[in-house]
Every structure is written in structure tokens, then in C-alpha cells.
Amino acid sequence: MEIKELTKAEEQIMQVLWDLKEGFVKDVIEQLPEPKPAYNTVSTIIRILETKGFIDHAAFGKSHQYHPVISKEEYKNFATEKLMNGYFENSVESMFSFFVKKQKIDLAEADEIMKMIEKLKNEQ
């Protein structure tokens, strides 16, 4: 199945559902920051997420309990590839350089990244 990009609102709802593992609309609303969105707003976004194939539901009478179908890891991979291809010509070096230049990575983080790279090299 092809993963589609999420809007900011959809992603916010998915973050809650990934954390909860499953929940009703009211459970999702409880986890959202103030000011809380209207029940109908969250319900509509959840139905859109279901149409996009991100979540499914189990019916309990008239109530629906929703659960993710696409994992956070799967979406993270999709979003990272989109970022890499769209802005960094699919180059990890280009992306790393960007974050270093923007001072979004400190020396300790850069050191950790270098250790991960060395570990990956040794595993090959």
C-alpha cells in the first residue's frame, strides 16, 4: 500500500493514536493540547485517516474504537525519504551538512552520529 502524506492536523491525531495504540474519538481529544478541538472536527479527521488507510476501527454498537494500521516507523521512513529526495538530492551528507550549518546538531550529537556510521561500516 502506498503511504500518503499527512496534513499537520492528521499527523497530530496520528501521533496520539500511535501513543494510545487504540482509542475512541473522546480518548484522542483528551490527549490533545488546549484549546481542545470540537468532537466533530476530530471525528472528521479520523474518518479521513481511515479513508487514507492509516487507521481502522472495531465497532462497539454505534461507537468505533480506532487503531493505527500504518506504524509510526513506517511513516517516519516515508517522511524521511520524502525530505531526503525533495530537499537534499537523496544525500545524507547534504542533509547532515545542512543541520550542522544551521547549528541544529551539537558536537556530542555529531560524535554519536559518527559512532553509528562506524558501527554500520563494521557490520557490512
Provide an overview of this structure.
The protein has a two-stranded antiparallel ribbon with strand order 1-2. It has 2 domains: 8-68, Arc Repressor Mutant, subunit A, CATH 1.10.10; 72-123. It has helices spanning 8-20, 25-31, 39-51, 72-87, 92-101, 107-123, and strands at 55-60, 63-68. The two termini are 30 Å apart. It is mainly α and 124 residues long. Helix 1 packs across helix 3 (39-51) and helix 2 crosses helix 3 (39-51). GO terms for molecular function: DNA binding. It comes from Pedobacter cryophilus. InterPro entries: BlaI_family (IPR005650), WH-like_DNA-bd_sf (IPR036388), WH_DNA-bd_sf (IPR036390).
Briefly summarize what is shown.
By secondary structure, the protein is mainly α. The protein is built from six helices and two strands; from the N terminus they run H-H-H-E-E-H-H-H.
Separation, N- and C-terminal Cα atoms: 30 Å
Enter the CATH topology name of the largest domain. Answer: Arc Repressor Mutant, subunit A
pLDDT below 50 for ≥5 consecutive residues: which ranges?
A: none
CATH architectural designation of the largest domain: Orthogonal Bundle
Quote the beta fraction.
Answer: 5-15%
Shape: elongated
GO molecular function: DNA binding
InterPro entries: BlaI_family, WH-like_DNA-bd_sf, WH_DNA-bd_sf
Pfam family, one: Penicillinase_R
Protein name: BlaI/MecI/CopY family transcriptional regulator
Break the fold down into its secondary structure elements and pairings.
Blueprint: H1 8-20, H2 25-31, H3 39-51, E1 55-60, E2 63-68, H4 72-87, H5 92-101, H6 107-123
Antiparallel strand pairs: 1-2
